[in-house]
Amino acid sequence: MKKKIITIFGTRPEAIKMAPLVKELGTREGIDIKVCVTAQHREMLDQVLEYFDIIPDFDLNIMKTKQTLTGITNRVLEGLEEVFINEKPDMILVHGDTTTTFSGALAAFYQQIKVGHVEAGLRTFDKYFPFPEEMNRKLTGGLADLHFAPTSGSKNNLLREGVKEEEIYITGNTVIDAMLHTVKDGYIFENEELNKIDFQNKKVIMITAHRRENWGEGINNICESLKAIVEANKDVELVYLVHLNPVVKDVVYRKLGGIERVHLLPPLDTKETHNLMNKSFMVMTDSGGLQEEAPHLGKPVLVLRDVTERPEAVSYGTVKLVGTNIKTIVENANTLLNNEEEYLKMSKSVNPYGDGNASKRIADAIEKYYGLREEEVEEFKR
């Protein structure tokens, strides 16, 4: 009998990283794959589902205006309880560090359903940075039966927390799998404002910044830094993909709206985002995922945070932590923009996060767990 696996995700970043795994599991004869979305983020999630041609089997549609962490958790728990009681899956798969991730794992635990955690073992070792993601990761790890760690460093974090070695697989990150399908040479954007930018002769900086811990002073400082950078460098254009949350959006448009060579755009779909990154000179972000994606494309990343759960890229030299201090951000950006040697150091470094086969390794590991496969799983090594 086939093993029923339900993948659960609710945000755009989760969907990008789970989409190639959904497709891979769909090719395995011994697995009956189902997709459940919580729609913690509705519009941005739907963009990814459409691009990867994924039609959810279950859609909890929980998003509300001004939603709280407590509200999200409650609605996911209640919605998944009904799905699990009716479907009785053998295992659920959750991804990363969202409130959907933790709530999905907890709902499965309450029904005594096995949990597989994709992108497991990332840690900053500070429970409030990033908030609530760090504790979402740790709590999910405590509930998981299989841990799919993207790197050896992530595996070591889990081992130190007492996870059994036989429950951990080093797989690489599934986002690299996704990028093999999205990035195209000679790409023409659907967004006409992007098509008007001279990527050949301008140094285009792609920006995202919306993390909860940066709300308030952090976003203000980031905007002031960006204004200083574009004013000091006449060959620079900024493309800021502005999160839809009004806590972020209102500040960004007030601070940066109407400034020459600053393009404020709503979040783009997956292929537009990845191809914008590919055409850009560098990336500035407080996102976790972009720290993995940009190095794959040889783009230096300045991380607008004081800590990161992805230290591998810092060690390899593809990523640099700059926090939200205006002086620090501006100095580091100007160095990359005007010092070719420093730029090449970062852009030529090796990406430690994957080789495009993470989804295959995860599917192999699940088959191995259920006795559907005899061969050992070949783990990712970098």
Automatic annotation (TrEMBL):
- Molecular function terms, GO-annotated: UDP-N-acetylglucosamine 2-epimerase activity
**Does Isomerase count among this protein's keywords?**
yes
Gene3D superfamilies for the chain: Glycogen Phosphorylase B
Family affiliation: Belongs to the UDP-N-acetylglucosamine 2-epimerase family.
Keywords attached to this Swiss-Prot or TrEMBL record, sorted alphabetically, are:
Isomerase
The transmembrane residues are: none
This protein's name: UDP-N-acetylglucosamine 2-epimerase (non-hydrolyzing)
Q: What class of enzyme is it?
A: isomerase
Does the keyword Signal feature in the UniProt annotation?
Answer: no
Q: Where do the UDP-N-acetylglucosamine 2-epimerase domain residues begin and end?
A: 23-367
Family matches, as Pfam families: Epimerase_2
E.C. code: 5.1.3.14
